Amino acid sequence: MTEIAIGIDLGGTRIKAVAIDSNGNVLHQLYKPTNDGDDKVWKNEVAAAVKELQNILKTEKINIGLSAPGLPNENNTAIAFMPGRMQGLENCNWNDLLHQPAYVLNDAVAAMMGESKFGAAKNKKNVVMLTLGTGVGGAILIDGKPYQGAFSKAGHIGYMVINDE
User: Fold this and answer.
1) Do 73 and 142 fall within a single domain?
2) Which residues are 19's β-sheet partners?
3) What pTM value is reported for the model?
């Protein structure tokens, strides 16, 4: 039996939701506005997207992966650090909001994992990725595994500080 999963990409301008099978086939996708300034709106939109995909797929329990800007906590259940944008994102427990387990990753790390499974980095053991969107990000794959490093900061060039003095 083919496994099905829901992926949510919570961005600064929109929410992208997709249901895929284990072969990477897109079964259904949705797009919704983020309305960055109002966390009640985008949190409700994420929950509504998951519910809509579950109804389309006719299933209650499903694997959920959620990517968002910022640095995830050590258990990958929430974004622990994302100052200055998307108020309400930091420490939002997605398991509670969605009423089932959700694995939370930084959006650049999630993009790299998607590319390593289905895209340009498929079958590659070591990859460095740069992402450009509402913000700047990056990710590192070492021996086929995402390298998050201390405080999940590895590869996030958007968080680099360059002292020119």
Assistant:
1) no
2) 6, 28
3) 0.84
